[in-house]
Predict the structure.
Amino acid sequence: MDKISGGMWTVLGGLAALLIVTVVAILAFKTAADVVSVVTAAGAVIGTLVGAFFGVSAGQAGRAEAEAAKDQAHRTLVNAAAKAAPDSPVAEAILAGA
């Protein structure tokens, strides 16, 4: 499952859960204040969970990009070190930077 469809299903699941809570609250309580209280509390929890899902997803994507950039920099450094003459200023600069 890719990120977009996972996010879509998370949002749709949260909305479905909130709809179910709303219907049950309307059937269970007589006053509007009670229904609003229940739906607000459930909405806060569901919204927090959906937001956390997207926060974790964004963090994982950022980490993957940082790891890829680190790996590319390492490959570049190794390639430069392999092509430099052993006692050249370039080799010394590479070793100092590593």
User: Anything to note?
Assistant: The chain has a mean pLDDT of 86. Helices lie at 3-28, 32-83, 89-97.
